[in-house]
Structure formats: structure tokens, C-alpha cells
Amino acid sequence: MTNAVEVRGLTKTYGSVKAVDDVSFTIGERKIYGLLGRNGAGKTTIMHLITAQLFPTKGELKVFGEAPYENNAVLSRVCFIKESQKYPDTFRIADVLELCASFFPNWDRDYAYSLLDEFRLPVRRRVKKLSRGMLSSVGIIVGLASRAPLTIFDEPYLGLDAVARSLFYDRLLEDYAEHPRTIVLSTHLIDEVSRILEHVLVMDGGRLLLDEDADALRGRAFTAVGPAAAVEAFVSGRQVLSRESLGGILSAVVIGPIDAEVRRRAEELALELAPVSLQQLIVHMTGEKSGRKAAHAQ
Amino acid sequence: MNRISGVIRMHTRVVVQWMMVPWIILLFAFGINYLISASVADSEPFNSGGLASLFVWMLAISATALTQTFPFALGLSVRRTDFFLGTAAMIGLVSVFSAVLLFLLSLAESEWAGGWGTHFTFFTFPFMTDLSMISRFGIFFIAILHCCFLGIFLASLYCRFGRNGLFVFFGCVFLALSALSVAATTFGWWLGIFNWLGEHLADLALWAALLTAVYILASYGLLRRSTV
After folding, report:
1. CB of A210 closer than 8 Å to CB of A200
2. What is the pLDDT of residues B122-165, one digit of tens each?
3. A112: contact with B, CB 8 A cutoff
């Protein structure tokens, strides 16, 4: 089985700014990936590079085993939904959906129109006149109904309300189960998507910070809360991502799984243990310099 | 092939713009010119030059169509080459359609009507009456094609280098023309230039065809390296 995406030493510079800096990773087939990171981390640039909408400065890039640039064998299997997608001024939603049939071999017209109803989109309205949330819904419908073997969503739900967002997650999982394909989701709303991600790539400052299975990542750190002295005693000799103190109470994010040894020691010191959510972990890792060092040390 | 026809379908969704708008504008220009010519007592035959509006509009619409559809097409995973071929095909079709229409109107004007009421001609250039039918159609076709691809070229320049690209390009064109006009004045070329132009008016079509080919190649080269 070839990989959907293979990237080695990928670099994209704008003048002296390194938007993407020597990044290497592979994206396997038929899995849901999360590409996470702060604004300006280089997520969107990477996705533009994968779809040959931007050109890399350096490095190797293969999509389905081939270079994507001007390659129909690759491009016809890729659907990239981006937040900044432009549409011709005169186009209506119906125009967009009808044209998708020409470019995505697996396009499911009936499915697209059923989604249109669910997201309550006015099919005859010009795309130019849509609200931000409706515009995002159009992208989501195109992304789902295209059924492209590699579907990439870049911030697909800007302006979407909570109902529409959960509708998106539900339909994505349902359709993924019926038509397995590689899905890459880039987002800030990590907690919302964490339940559907199977693999996580975290970027920060143009570099790849983390490339790990989502389940493994969930058990990678925990929080210990208790009296400051007890917590300090507990964390000595362990890697600490962050400390927060409130009065005499200290809360520390500690790297490592919650195993029997940890439980026993915590009980001795009367500390409370809690798992760290994916979002918290990533915030700690990308939020500050110390977090970055700790992550690299891993 | 399927993807190229998809690009053509993309353009036909704005076909009203492609086809109707320039012709509506042309009809307005014709109407206004007709009124003016009718109100001028002098019956000296004249050509209004209103036809130029068609060519300017073809240029503007080609440029707009390209800048609007290029980022959209790329977003639908279309190859740049396929996008260009589809766009060029669409422009070919539009040019043939417009040239045929123009040819028939000019024929009606010079052969059957003999000018509109008061000796004013709109759809025929004065030098055209001596030309064969083929060259008359050819000149219309090449003139329209030339304007469309000039628009495509400028739009491709914009897609590739952004606004600054257009500034630099027009700056260079301006400088070159200034230098040429200074040289022409200094060395007394103006008379020669105008005489040559007057004698070779119909040959200009060949030069326009050559220029069109240059635009096509340049646009393709620019779009191949354009990003969104």
C-alpha cells in the first residue's frame, strides 16, 4: 500500500521568512489525520504545497507516489477545501455543485443535494452573497460529496454554528465508514475534533513538532493537582510541561502515562490526577518555549 | 480531455457575459452613432469607430473571466494546462461567433444597405470594401482574437506577479513607447511610419496574428508558474 502523502525535507520560504521549515512526514491511506497548530504555523502552506497550488522551495513531495504538479493522475484524486477559496462572482451554489461533477470522478450528486438540505443552503443564491458560515458549508458539501481518496479540509467551519459543526462531524464519520479515504483536517478547535482523529501532526513556527497516533498522544501527559509542596515532591525527576499555582495549590502538567506507579505515588501524597486533553497538551507544547524544549527532548 | 471540457463548461456558466454584454454595448453605440449621424446635416460619408467598444469589451471580459476562474479551477484540482486549454478553446469559440456576426453585419451594411441612412458606416472599416470576403472575415476574427488574448495575457501577468507585475509591465511599455516617439521625432520617422501604416492597413492583421501567438505562449508560461 503506497502512502497518500510522502514529504521529505519540505521547505517553503518567502524572502527570509520560513513558512515551512524542513518538514518530513507521511500520511497513510484511509485514516483521519489532524494537522494542528497555531495561526501561522505553516499548516495552510503545507496543504497548498501538497495540492500543487504553491511550489516548494526545497524538498521532496509525493502524493499517491507521484509528484502532484500538473499531474491529473494525482490531482483528480485530491480535493482541497480551503477557507480562502474564491468563487467567480456570477456563480450560484448550483453552478459550483454541477461543475464538481466534471472534476471529481467519485462525485455523488444526490448526496451533495441531500447535504444541501441538511445544511439549509439556498441553492439558487449567488456564492458571493453567502454569509461566512454558509460559505463554509458549501466547502464542506464539496469536500464530502467529492469522495476524493485524499480530502483535505483547511479550517472548514469558520463561521459555522455548533449544530452545523456537529452535523459536519457526523456526516464525515458516516461517509468515511462507508467510503474509507484519507482525510486531513486542519483546525484550531482541537477538542471538538479530537474524538474523530486517528493521527495527529502538530506544527509550530513552520516546523513539525509532533507526528503521533492520537490514542498514544492522549495518554502522553496528565495533570497532578494538590498542595504545592506535595506536587513538587511528586514531579521531581519527571518532565513537567507547565505549572500553575493558585494560592497554595499547584497544578502541574506532567509527561508520561498514568500507570500503577504514578497512581500509588499520587495516593501517598494525596494528589488528584486528571488526564490532559489533546487540546491542553498541544496548547502546552506550542504555547511557550519551555514546552517546546520538553517536547523536543521526548 | 474530460477535464478540459469541464473548464469550458465552467466558462459557459458565465456565457451571458461572454456573448451578450459586448453586443448589447455595441448596439447602444450603434444607436447613439446613428442618432448623431442623423442629426448632422453634412452628408459626407464617415465611419464612426464605435466598433472599438466591442474590442475593448472583449479584452476586459477575457481578463475578468481568467482572474475569476483561475483560483476557482485550481481549487477544484484542475491542472493549469487543462485550465489554459479550456480557456483558449472558449475564447476561440467566442471569437468565431463574434466574427461571424460582425462579418454578416458588415456585409449587410456595405453590400445591401450601402450605409445607414446618412452615409455613415459602423461595421465596416473604409479599407475593407476592396477586400475579399475571406480577408474581411479573417480581419474581424483576428482582431477579436487578438483583443481577447491580450486580456488573457494581462490577467496571467496579474495571476503570476500580482499588481506589481502589471505596474512594471505597463511602466516598461510606457518607457518603450516614449523612447520610440522621441527617436521618431529626432530622426523624422513619423511620416514614414504613417505612410507605411496607411498602405499596409490590411497587413496589420498578420502582425496582430503574430502578436496573438506571442500572447498565447506567454500566458501559458505565466499560468504554469502561477499560484493562488
Report:
1. yes
2. 887 777 777 788 888 998 999 999 999 999 999 999 999 999 99
3. no
Interface touch B72/A86, C-beta < 8 Å: yes
Interchain contact A236–B (C-beta under 8 A): no
Cell 465552467 belongs to B10
Domain ranges, ordered by start, for chain A: 5-216, 219-297
* Subunit contact A100:B76, Cβ cutoff 8 A: yes
Backbone angles phi, psi at A85, to 5 degrees: -60, 135
- Residues in B closer than 8 angstroms to A80, CB to CB, are 75, 77
By C-alpha distance, the chain B residue nearest A102 is B6
Give the global pTM.
0.90
Q: Cβ of A72 under 8 Å from any chain B Cβ?
A: yes
- CB–CB of A102 and B72 under 8 A? no
Whether residue A124 lies within 8 A of chain B, CB to CB, comes out as no
For A125-137, the pLDDT digits (tens) are: 999 999 999 999 9
Secondary structure letter of residue A1 according to DSSP: -
Backbone region of residue A185 per phi and psi (left: phi > 0; alpha: psi in -120 to 50; beta: other values): beta
Fold of A5-216: Rossmann fold (3.40.50)
The ipTM, to two decimals, is: 0.88
Fold match flag (A5-216 vs A219-297): no
Calculate mean pLDDT across residues A85-95: 94
Residue B118, class by beta-carbon neighbours within 10 Å (0-12 exposed, 13-18 middle, 19+ buried)? middle
Which chain A positions have a beta carbon within 8 Å of B74's beta carbon? 53
With beta carbons less than 8 A apart as the criterion, state whether A119 and A160 touch.
no
Which CATH number is A219-297's, of 1.10.10.10, 3.40.50.2300, 3.20.20.70, 3.30.70.2020? 3.30.70.2020
| Other CB atoms within 10 Å distance of the CB of residue A150 | 23
Taking the C-alpha atoms of residue A62 and residue A8, their distance in angstroms, rounded to an integer, is 9
Residue A198's pLDDT band (cuts 50, 70, 90): very high
Measured between alpha carbons, how far is A202 from A126 in angstroms, rounded to an integer? 36
CA atoms within 13 A on the CB side of B152: 29
